Amino acid sequence: MAKNLINPKISDALDFIKKYHTNKPDKTLLIIIGDCIIDYKGRARSFLDWGERIIMIKQDGTVLVHQPTMREPVNWQPTGTKTEFKIKDGQLVIRSRHYKPPEKMKINFRDIQLVTVNMLKDKAKLLISGMELDVVNEIVNNPNFIEDGLRISKREKHVKSGMIDLFGYDKNHTPVVIEVKRSLANISAVHQLRMYVNDIKKDIDTINVRGVLCAPRIPDMIKKLLSDYGLEWQEVERKVVLPDDYQKTLKECFEQ
Questions:
Q1: d(CA 143, CA 137)
Q2: Has residue 242 got a pLDDT over 60?
Q3: Helices in the chain by DSSP H: which ranges?
Q4: What is the pLDDT of residue 255?
Q5: Closest CA to 93 of 216, 181, 198, 10
Q6: Which of 74, 97, 182, 213 has CB atoms 3.0–4.6 Å from 104's, for a disulfide?
Q7: CATH of span 2-118
Q8: Backbone angles phi, psi at 162, to 5 degrees
Q9: What is the reported pTM?
Q10: Mean pLDDT, to the nearest integer, of 191-203?
Q11: Sequence ranges of the domains in the chain
Q12: How many other CB atoms are found less than 10 A from the CB of residue 37?
């Protein structure tokens, strides 16, 4: 269901909102575009003078105020907010109130360009992949992706300098520190890995500890710096792995 009203009179806009939104606010998304002024009291106190903005009232009560630029809303109220509509002095007045924590917002429209009401259905859950954690999990599940005989004994191992992503032993029982990065490897990652290796050397009283930096791309200058410090690298292509028959899995990327 989608209902639209373009350049309406203020009274027509209110009638439209009452007809298509206020009798079922938990089932309809309301969007109003127009010239408005906003007064807010709650987490702080704010006042926004006249300007053309987008007001969005979601099906869970969330209220968002967007200006023509920037990604984040300039003001908002959370889930569970209750909103009322009326006309006063020829303007459409929207009053939104949230109780815990207490906050309220008043929006006055003196001109409206568009009012739209829609009933959206979306039960899908956001699946996030392609992060450092995906590579870490893949290595834990199959350490041979890095090299044959590698055994992972601990993940997120705490040392003096921070927390090592993966710690294990190679086929010759030499300790191995593995640091995983989700994007281009940089000098900071090299120094981080170097400190972790030095911490392990002190903790277990040995001079033979390997350090391996894993990243999708490692520039030549970073490879040289790693070599200068006696450290190693493994370029691991990071792919977004979602339930899609057409996308490659991280395992397939390793096998290429």
A1: 10
A2: no
A3: 10-17, 132-141, 187-204, 220-228, 250-255
A4: 53
A5: 10
A6: 97
A7: 2.70.180.20
A8: 155, -140
A9: 0.56
A10: 94
A11: 2-118, 132-255
A12: 16
Fold that domain 132-255 belongs to in CATH:
Trna Endonuclease; Chain: A, domain 1 (3.40.1350)
Asked if pLDDT for residue 194 goes beyond 80, the answer is yes
List the one residue out of 26, 29, 33, 28 whose CA is nearest residue 8.
33
pLDDT (tens digit per residue) in 85-141? 999 999 999 999 998 888 999 999 999 999 999 999 998 875 555 556 777 888 888
User: In this predicted model, what pLDDT tens digit does every residue of 154-168 receive, in sequence order?
Assistant: 988 999 989 999 999
β-strands 63-66, 162-169: how paired? unpaired
Q: Tell me the residue type at 199.
A: D
pLDDT band at 199; cut points 50, 70, 90: very high
Separation CA 116–CA 97 (nearest Å):
22
Q: Which two tokens stand for residue 53?
A: 């903005």
Burial 9-36 (b: 16+ CB within 10 A, else e): ebeebbebbeebbeeebeebbbbbbbeb
